[in-house]
Amino acid sequence: MNLDEFISGEIKNEVDELSFSWESPSNIALVKYWGKFPNQTPKNPSISFTLSNCKTTTNVVFKRLPKSNDLVAFDFYFENKLNIDFRPKIEKFFSSITKYCPYLLDFCLTIRSSNSFPHSSGIASSASGMSALSLCIMSLEKELTEIDMNYMFQKASFISRIGSGSACRSIYGGINFWGNHQETSKSSDFYSVRMDEHVSSKFDNYRDTILIIDNQAKEVSSSVGHKLMDNHPFSEIRFEQANQNISKLKSILSSGNLNKFCDLVEKEALMLHSLMMSSDPSYILMKPETLIVITKIQKFRKTFKIPVCFTLDAGANVHVLYPDNYSNQVADFIKDELLSYCENKKFISDIIGDGPKQI
Fold first, then answer.
1. How many CB atoms lie within 10 A of CB 9?
2. Burial (0-12, 13-18, 19+ Cβ within 10 Å), 107
3. Does 256 map to a domain?
4. How much is the pTM?
5. Residue 7 to residues 2, 45, 47, 220: CA-CA distances in angstroms?
6. Which residues in the chain land under pLDDT 50?
7. Is the domain of 10 the same as that of 151?
8. Both 234 and 106 in a single domain?
9. β 73-78/107-115 pair status
10. Domain range holding 103?
11. Secondary structure of 250-303 in the HEC alphabet?
């Protein structure tokens, strides 16, 4: 693939100051990506549900500078406070995308961002945050160069991946695919695509109740975890398995076999955490309450024959996945048996969403 096609074109409209705001959701991977190359591409493909209520809202004011800078000038505010902790990550992101978005060097950016959920706790806050920021940047590019909407979203997925791999899966709604896979047309390591194959109506309005087991930032970042896959003893087996599970999941999504869906998704979640526990150095992000909750979910499914299952991101919190038509039964189960294991009984009710929205 020729990546030069993502270098911005001729500036057609000069502007002095513009402001854009986007809401972008998090996503939850069903088949996980764990391990990446230095160019921020995945060592295995992944499939995710785009969420709706777990989202980042970002506003960026672009103000033209008297002369071009060597580095992108910006201030970053998180939850209405000037934030320096996130600054190195954003600086690295900007330095990596100026080849594709050189116009950024002509502006000073004031970035204001907020989350509807706890950041750095294993609910893919970097995915929603980087995708929202990328969409603001691409809104500026659209004004400057008059690109069309399809290219705008594809390039937003491309540059957001550079900031956070999973962010590229938050650009589109529904079910998203990221990573080259020989059985999936249009798949790419450089951006995500929305799955256009047939998906059973059983997955319409699929629910995700996120149980907040631990509200704190996780002890080991995802970036560190990905790097530990470079010399992991089980890495090659894992990458092969992930490709096989992609094929299996695509078939499951088409057929609507919810029992097989539960089995595969749970195995993927446990595999992710087993890779963490068997890395060098090893680490554990699950908490004792995490294990209690997933055991109760499996027992509830077996007892009542309701296709509810769990998945985990790189953290302690539990995503409870289930069809919309079982919402009442699952809600009662969560209230009666699971909430006591959540921090301050906190949870987030979410659902497959339609993707980012400009506001």
1. 12
2. buried
3. yes
4. 0.94
5. 10, 25, 27, 34
6. none
7. yes
8. no
9. parallel
10. 3-196
11. HHHHHHCCHHHHHHHHHHHHHHHHHHHHCCCCCCCCCCHHHHHHHHHHHHHHHH
